[in-house]
Target: HK97 gp10 family phage protein
Amino acid sequence: MKGKMIVTNMGAMFRALDKQVKDAEWQTQQLLKYAGEQFLRRARLNKEFKDDTGNLQSSIGYVVAKNRRIIINAIEGLEPEKQTAKGKTYGVRLAEAIIADYPMGYVLVGVAGMEYGVYVEANGKDVITGSIPQTKKLIREIMDELKK
Model:
């Protein structure tokens, strides 16, 4: 029969489609997690500031969210052994505030949650700003490769 498709097992078809969707979701999450890890790695390598309390360092990290819900939380700071609860809390709060602006789909959010991070950067010290363009470039390159 030319031009016709007969589906006799709808359940099998829906299971196959569901598996493809789940695989695509997993790959998307892994891509964003990888990009987030690279963001965090660069922030650690480029650390140009002194942080006596550890709060600023602890507020640095990334989250991956889907439909406003955090599915990967990696606000772990530049030096995990110097982690402070205050810094981590501020980082997560800022990430949640940013995520609120993205109600649908996936989003990768890199943050330095302590407010004074802006002032540190204004004084010429890189906190996370230097890591952002490289992370965006990485995501674009991976997405371009996937389109091929």
Observations:
- The mean pLDDT is 88.
- Residues 10-45 form the longest helix (36 residues).
- The CA atoms of residues 65 and 71 lie 5 Å apart.
